[in-house]
Design brief:
25% of the residues are buried. β12 (535-541) and β13 (550-557) form a beta hairpin. With 566 residues, the protein is of the alpha/beta class. The chain has helices spanning 22-35, 48-64, 84-89, 101-109, 114-118, 122-140, 157-171, 181-192, 200-213, 242-250, 265-285, 300-315, 322-328, 336-367, 374-385, 390-395, 403-414, 436-449; strands at 12-16, 38-42, 71-74, 427-429, 464-470, 486-489, 492-494, 497-499, 504-506, 514-516, 520-526, 535-541, 550-557.
Amino acid sequence: KKLMGLQPNVNYHNIAMGQGQDVPAINKLELGHKEGHWVMLQNIHLMPSWCKELEKKLNSFVVEGSHVNFRVFLSADPSPGIPIGILEACIKLTNEPPQGLLANLRRAFALFTKEDFEDRDAKVKSILFGLCHFHAVMLERKKFGPLGYNMMYPFSAGDLRDSARVLYNYLEGLSSVKIPWDVLRFLFGDIMYGGHIVDDWDRKMCGTYLNYFMQDELLDETELVPYADGKLCWPSPPPGTHERYLEHIESMPSESPLFFGMHPNAELGFRTAQCKQIFEMLWMLQPKDKGAEDADSQSPMARAEQLCNDFFDEVRDISFPVDDISRSMTDEEKGPFQFVFLQECEYMNVLVFEMSRSLSELQLGFKGELTMSPAMENLAECLYLEQIPPRWAKHAFASTRPLQSWLVNLKDRCVEWVPDPIHIMKVVDISKLFNPQSFLTAIKQLACQDQDPQAANKLELDKLNVYTDVTKRDAKQIDAFAREGTYVTGMFLEGARWDVNGNTLEDSKPKEMFFKMPVVNCKAGLNQDREEKNVYNCPAYCVPTRRPHFVFTAQLRTKQPAAKWV
């Protein structure tokens, strides 16, 4: 600014885009175009529809000829709403966190100059280093995908810088010996970093890190590898000079998921996901037309036609007579579980109808009896790539399976319910349901219906929650209905395993990414405001990608602190 002689609101204009800022932005652009000012438009991704108008305005400036000193700077997060024309015309710069926990910690600590750091109190130095480590952990945790966060958040150096300012304001000149940890944890976890976080489970994870790092032990020496049980050690440095802290950063051991409180298997999952992404990209880049050397193999359209015929033969006979089943039951026989059964049948009918309709339509297109529409071409491409077509996914159950495996799973769901809808099975495979939440709601409804009419404290549906009790048996060993609630199966643990003999959570075995749970007794009970000791409230999801397919919270016993599993 000094070199160019820029002055805010004189020849340099900075506008944060948002609702109502389109007119001021255009006015400043017109002014800068004529008089040679610099214009900065921040966060244009927040106004994707206006970006098209911006593109036209910039193109008109090119035709008219702008002042030689006119410059436009745009900032945005990655967004499909930004026109290609703007991206092609711009000189693009990206600001991304470095790869690796050590590199992130170096960059975080480098935000604070040596002179400023040396002037701080010893307590402030220790807490500031802990804050830098927390910041690095929050950034690098993103690489683990759904195992790291349910959603991705734009944490930046600004969050660390603002948190440091809050720390200075609270602790500089503090006469009290006791540090207000609760206040600092709230400001860091619920406002500075928590202001980005939307998902409740991600917020809980952020708070768990702060509860571990932000405590009195940080002022001396505390272990910065949470719940590692001695497998990896890296203590916080004692208060010292700026150089001592830099030396301690360089002494960090080789990066491991243990730094994040995770099992080493998390690294295996991360690397596997990386390889899968690379090979999927290479597969997408493969030419669609086969060369002469591939004469014996099928072309994409021939492969799609074969799969179209095979899939149509598989699903065309699947149908559930929902109306006939409903009429065969009296009103007294129609309970909560029966309504869930009818809903599941209806969901399956809708899905199979859409599959049959689109596949039969595509068959006619392959035969030349119908013109191939964009929807039909998209379906054929999905069949060739073995991906679930979007129109099917709209009516289907949540799944991350490839297409062939998905079809096998669909057929398994068709035979899950017993022929007699009046009586449910002794053990219900909850993973085979389109809407498992409705089945859990039926458990609560049945608890309300079966209660004693003369009871003083009657159960109310909105005050009930589903609680879990893990048994030591598998589905084949269950020979009677549950005394209370319902037995369910089809649950898997990720990031831990279940010790059947000890009836508690334990660390996963090497290379064991998922662990199938024994039969779980799900029953209704009154909501509890406080968490029970030695019990981890574990979120249950339909698929490994997690959000937005949250189902309910399961209660799992643990001998170790519940925070270890968060």
